[in-house]
Amino acid sequence: xxxxxxxxxxxxxxxxxxxxxxxxxxxxxxxxxxxxxxxxxxxxxxxxxxxxxxxxxxxxxxxxxxxxxxxxxxxxxxxxxxxxxxxxxxxxxxxxxxxxxxxxxxxxxxxxxxxxxxxxxxxxxxxxxxxxxxxxxxxxxxxxxxxxxxxxxxxxxxxxxxxxxxxxxxxxxxxxxxxxxxxxxxxxxxxxxxxxxxxxxxxxxxx
Length: 207
Description:
The chain has about 210 residues and is mostly helical. The protein is about 45% helix and about 5% strand. The chain contains 9 helices and 2 strands, in the order ααααααααββα. The radius of gyration is 18 Å and the shape is globular. It starts with 5 loop residues before the first helix and ends with a helix.
């Protein structure tokens, strides 16, 4: 993730009409053609701007109001990095090093320092663009049947949970025929350590 490009990504979004689907093609049309730029789509999904299929959600349209854009982004950051804000309600004021220190504790050895460093830099860059001066607002509950994204980060889903009789219970929710389809976009780098870290993390979480 090119953390330094985050302001440019959001500024370009504000200047463009929201697409029916935020695809790689749409990102390229905004002027971002690097393979590293593609990671921004995943960030938008984590922030609640897009659903799993890349379709803009209510937060995306709220962001398009320039008078509220940075406040809306702050809401998304608080949700996407809820674990950091649970540690400190003013986590948005963390330096990159502060964020790295807290993330090391949260990941409990499940991520390499290289990965944690990238997460911390992305978090810091997002917070620099957002406006946290307002009070956190409670999100309205979505109507039944509306397409929603999974707010739970992968680390919170136990990789050892077993599926039996073609169904699994997560909390009180019954999930039938649970399947995961994972697409991996590898960074444009020749550093073997980066790839080793990615596949090591996959092996740890997916088994």
